[in-house]
């Protein structure tokens, strides 16, 4: 698997509607999972909200999106997702992006079994890093 970089859109309670709309625009296969499906801790009223949505289009686009829980701020500058299985490469990207940035979620084992983290770089851009199938959690340091 190679490392992928793609947009990750943030919504407040409208990710399902938005992602279904984008499917009508771009075509392709849409997969959605909710906070309730994953067991992620959110307010009861948010358990049906989209924790992760992914649209893979016939043109080769990948568009991701999710509802932001009410306990977190919605990213206004956009978010970029880096994902793959090359742990060394992805941890290197994490460490470089974290320099001068702000930690959102530490880079560690997530409930779905991958290593996952979120940060905002020094320019205000949100980044998500997901390392597939990583057995050991590892925290990235912020400078």
From TrEMBL:
This is PhnB protein. Gene3D superfamilies: 2,3-Dihydroxybiphenyl 1,2-Dioxygenase, domain 1. It comes from the Bacteria. It comes from Rhodococcoides corynebacterioides. Residues 5-128 form the Glyoxalase/fosfomycin resistance/dioxygenase domain. InterPro entries: Glyas_Bleomycin-R_OHBP_Dase, Glyas_Fos-R_dOase_dom, PhnB-like. Pfam families: Glyoxalase. Signal peptide: none annotated.
């Amino acid at each position: 698997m190679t490392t992928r970089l793609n947009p990750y859109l943030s919504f407040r309670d409208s990710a399902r509607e938005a992602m279904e709309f984008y499917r009508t625009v771009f075509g392709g296969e849409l997969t959605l999972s909710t906070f309730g499906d994953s067991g992620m801790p959110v307010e009861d009223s948010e358990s049906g909200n989209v924790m992760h949505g992914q649209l893979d289009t016939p043109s080769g686009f990948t568009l991701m999106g999710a509802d932001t829980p009410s306990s977190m701020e919605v990213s206004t500058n956009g978010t970029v997702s880096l994902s793959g299985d090359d742990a060394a490469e992805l941890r290197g990207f994490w460490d470089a992006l974290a320099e001068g940035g702000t930690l959102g979620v530490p880079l560690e084992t997530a409930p779905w079994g991958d290593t996952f983290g979120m940060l905002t770089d020094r320019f205000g851009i949100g980044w998500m890093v997901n390392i597939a199938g990583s057995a050991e959690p590892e925290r990235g340091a912020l400078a």
